[in-house]
């Protein structure tokens, strides 16, 4: 079964409202979908339990926190060896804070 078969229109509306602003009060969501706050809470818990809601992250204001630049960088190591990734990670640790870093395997290129 797919999600369209597993969720009713009220569930979809609850998800839409939570995705827009996860801090919505249960009473406000209930008013929007025609349910009591306790019914909304039950449905939300079921949606979480069933894996439709994975997390409720906070979206931070980077500028207000002093992070004025958002940058994405792709780096390639010239040579690979058992010690190179650790040396690279130590060098990167000396840089100013970052919110996220990901190491991806090399992708072969064709010339």
Features:
mainly alpha; 111 residues
Average pLDDT confidence is: 82
Query: What is the percent of helical residues?
Result: 40-55%
Structural class: mainly alpha
The dominant shape is elongated
What's the total helix number?
5
Number of strands: 0
Brief overview, please?
The chain has helices at 3-6, 9-20, 26-33, 37-49, 84-93. The chain has 111 residues and is an all-alpha fold. The model has no long low-confidence stretch (mean pLDDT 82).
Describe this structure in words.
There is one protein chain. By secondary structure, the protein is mainly α. It is built from 5 helices and no strands. It has helices at residues 3-6, 9-20, 26-33, 37-49, 84-93. Helix 3 (26-33) crosses helix 4. It is elongated, with a radius of gyration of 22 Å. It starts with a helix and ends in an 18-residue tail after the last helix.
Any chance you could write out the topology, listing elements then pairs?
Layout: H1 3-6, H2 9-20, H3 26-33, H4 37-49, H5 84-93
Helix pairs in contact: 3-4
């Amino acid at each position: 079964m797919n999600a369209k078969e597993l969720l009713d229109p009220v569930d979809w509306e609850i998800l839409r409202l939570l995705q827009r602003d996860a801090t919505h009060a249960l009473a406000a969501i209930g008013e929007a979908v025609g349910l009591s706050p306790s019914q909304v809470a039950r449905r939300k818990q079921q949606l979480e339990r069933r894996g439709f809601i994975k997390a409720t992250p906070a979206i931070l204001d980077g500028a207000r926190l002093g992070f004025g630049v958002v940058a994405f960088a792709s780096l390639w190591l010239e040579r690979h060896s058992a010690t190179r990734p650790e040396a690279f990670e130590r060098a990167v640790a000396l840089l100013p804070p970052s919110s996220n870093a990901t190491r991806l395997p090399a992708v072969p290129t064709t010339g």
